[in-house]
Amino acid sequence: MSVSDLFKPLTLLHGPAMRNRFMLAPLTNQQSELDGTASVYDHFWMEQLSQSGYALIQTCATTVEAGGIAFARQLGIHSDDHLPGLTRMATTIRSGGGLSAVQLHHAGHRANPLLGGIPAPASSDTLPGIPAISTEVVERIRDSFIAAAKRAQLAGFDGVAVHGAFGWILSEFMSPFLNDRKDKYGGSLENRARLTLEVIEGIRRECGPDFQIGWRLSIERYGLRLEELREVTAYIFDRELIDYLDLALWDSAQVVREGPFRGKTMLSLFTELPRKGVRLGTAGKIMSAKRAGELLDEGCDFVLIARAGILQRDFPLQVKADPTYDSPRLPVPAEYLRERGLSERFIDHMRGWQTFVLHGSR
Q1: Contact (Cβ atoms closer than 8 angstroms) between residue 183 and residue 173
Q2: In terms of domains, do 169 and 262 share one?
Q3: In this structure, are strands 99-105 and 279-283 parallel, antiparallel, or unpaired?
Q4: Number of domains in the chain
Q5: How far are the Cα atoms of 86, 144, 277, 313 from residue 157, in angstroms, in the given order?
Q6: Which of the ends of the chain has fewer CB neighbours closer than 10 A, N or C?
Q7: Distances (CA, A) of 66 to 107, 140, 300
Q8: pLDDT score, position 192
Q9: Same domain, yes or no, for 124 and 201?
Q10: What is the CATH number of the domain that holds 71?
Q11: Measured between alpha carbons, how far is 193 from 174 in angstroms, rounded to an integer?
C-alpha cells in the first residue's frame, strides 16, 4: 500500500464511516477545570483538532465516577453538569467533518486520593490497608461506565472508547496479578474479563445500534498475559462486540521478547486474528507518513496519532500535502508547542514526559 491509502474511507459496524485512516489517540492533557468540566483550553484544543483532518477524534481519558479520578484537571463525564461542555466539544468536532468519541476511564486502584479519588482495587493485596471492592461496587462502576456512555450520546458524540489499558480498572480486573477475587469477577479468565464484557454489552444495549464502541487495550506490564488477551480479543472480534480495537503499544514495532511468541511483533499477534467486521488500529511512535503507511501493510485498518499530533496538530493534513512528511525531532522547546496552540496546562503536563519538552525551556 502507499501513503495515499491512508486517505481511503473506512466503514465501521455501527454509525458513520471514517473519512480516512487517521484517528486521534486519547491524549491526557490536564487542562480541564477542577470539577471536570471542559475549560476554554479544552474547547480551543478541539477547535484546532476539528480542522486537522482526522477521521475520528477521541477525548482524553474522562472520568465515569468522581472517585475514579487519576489526574488533576481531568475531564469528567460522571455528572450531567458536564453535559454543556461535552456537547460543545462534540459539536465542534462534527463541524470539521470528523467522528467523535469520549474515552471512558476509571482509575481503579490507581485513583488519586489527593484529588478526591477513592482507590478501588480488585484485590486486597494491591494497596496496603485497602480491601478489595465488593461485588456491589464492581457492579456500580460497571453501571457508571454505561451511564457515562449514555451521557456521551446525549452530548452528541458518535461513540465512546472504553479504556481497558495501562492498569486502570478494566485492565486491572483482567490481570491475574492484580485480581485474586473469589466472586464472579475473579479467578478464571472468563471471570476476569467479565467486567469489560459487561461494560461493552451494557453500552450497546443502552445506546443502540448506531452508537460506536471502541476498546483500548495494552499488553505490557501490570501482570497481563499475552495469551489471555489474545483469547479475549478473539472472542470480542468473533462476536463483533466493538467497532474498533485501539491497540495501545509504546512502540508499534515492538517485538515479543520471551515465551511462545518470541520474535514476533506484538501487533502481528492481533492483526492475524480473524476480526470479522471489527477494525483494528495501533498507536506507538507513529511519527512519519512512511510509518503510518507501513502499518496498513502490517494489517492495521487505521492508525492512532499521539505524540506526532501534539507536535503538529494537523498531522493528517501534513501527510496529505507531503507523503514524505516526518515529525520534528524530540525534545522540542516549550515555545515550539506554545506557538502551535498548546495551553500552558498542556505544556506542563508534557513536561512530565522525559523526552518531550526540552529541559529548561520556558
Answers
A1: no
A2: yes
A3: unpaired
A4: 2
A5: 8, 17, 21, 21
A6: C
A7: 10, 13, 35
A8: 98
A9: yes
A10: 3.20.20.70
A11: 5
The boundaries of the domain holding residue 362 are: 329-362
Both 9 and 137 in one domain: the answer is yes
* Same domain as 152, residue 73: yes
Q: What is the pTM of this model?
A: 0.97
Q: What is the pLDDT of residues 304-356, one digit of tens each?
A: 999 999 999 999 999 999 999 999 999 999 999 999 899 999 999 999 988 99
CA–CA distance, 315 with 344 (Å, rounded to integer)? 21
**Residue 32: closest CA among 346, 242, 356, 361:** 346
Q: Vertex 133, ends 131 and 136: CA angle to 5°? A: 145
Which pLDDT score, from 0 to 100, does residue 360 have? 75
Q: What is the rounded distance in angstroms from the CA atom of residue 282 to the CA atom of residue 246?
A: 6
| Residue 223 scores a pLDDT above 90 | no
Q: Is the pLDDT confidence value at 149 over 90? A: yes
- pLDDT tens figures, 114-124: 999 999 999 99
Mean pLDDT for the chain overall: 97
At 112, which amino acid appears?
Answer: N
Strand partners, 214: 161, 244
Please indicate, yes or no, whether residues 60 and 155 belong to a single structural domain of this protein: yes
Is residue 225 located within the same domain as residue 344? no
pLDDT at 1 exceeding the cut of 80: no
Statement to judge: residues 244 and 175 lie in one domain? yes
Query: How large is the average pLDDT for residues 197-205?
Result: 98
pLDDT one-digit tens code per residue, 243-292: 999 999 999 999 999 889 999 999 999 999 999 999 999 999 999 999 99
